[in-house]
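Hey, resending since the last one bounced:
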Amino acid sequence: MSPNRHPDTVHRSLPELPSLPRPLYGRVESLTNRALTFRHTHPWVQLSYAIAGVLEVQTAGARFVAPPQRAVWVPAGVEHRVFSSPRTEMRSLYIDSGAVPWGPHECRVLAVSPLLRELIRRFSALPAEYDEQGAPGRLAAVLLDELQAAPAVALMLPLPQDARLREVCQGLQDARLRQLGLSEWGERLGVSEKTLSRLFLRETGLSFRAWRQRQRLLDALTPLEQGERVTDVALACGYDSLSAFIAAFRRQFGATPGEFFRE
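The structure tokens again:
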């Protein structure tokens, strides 16, 4: 068995269904390479969770990033794409909206407690058409109770809609352009720094510097989860020193990189 393959991995494809076989349906996937789905929607709620690897859900308005111990809640009807890091072990729950009337109406990242993690793993091994009146049905009910109690966490990056800001955000993914400030971007785009600054705050709720820092830190989660050295990740993300990276990471996530992935 590959050291990156979890021992309880099974595979279940999801056919095109007009409805779910049960109000709560589990799907398991092993993704050996970074995966990308085209923009799509579901008529049901989706909870995307990885027991290994890092998942990312992108909507028109934001990126939602979920390393292990976190999951992404996607409401019914929300158009989205799903990315994953290599060798991701994914557990998805598909939930009839009627079973979760308390559910949020927007995407969010949720903390997954040890109990919720084990409930998801146990439920994912059940047959698709499990006995709703027996023990499997009671397991599903407890899982939904724990899911309702799961707190939201700040692993989201809002995406602007303005075409000029989109160009800036895309450019920040390029290592050659990562260090450009807002004044340099203004020169490139033929717009004042003040205008760009005002647009960033209006469309994302964050200043340009805060947005760029959050982007860098979210981009750091995948290489950190895969075991790359913190120093190498810090430099690759554009930080001049390890201490500056760790301080920024702690401010954003409330823990150092080592603590974050030991949870």
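The chain is about 35% helix and 20% strand.

Sorry for the duplicate.
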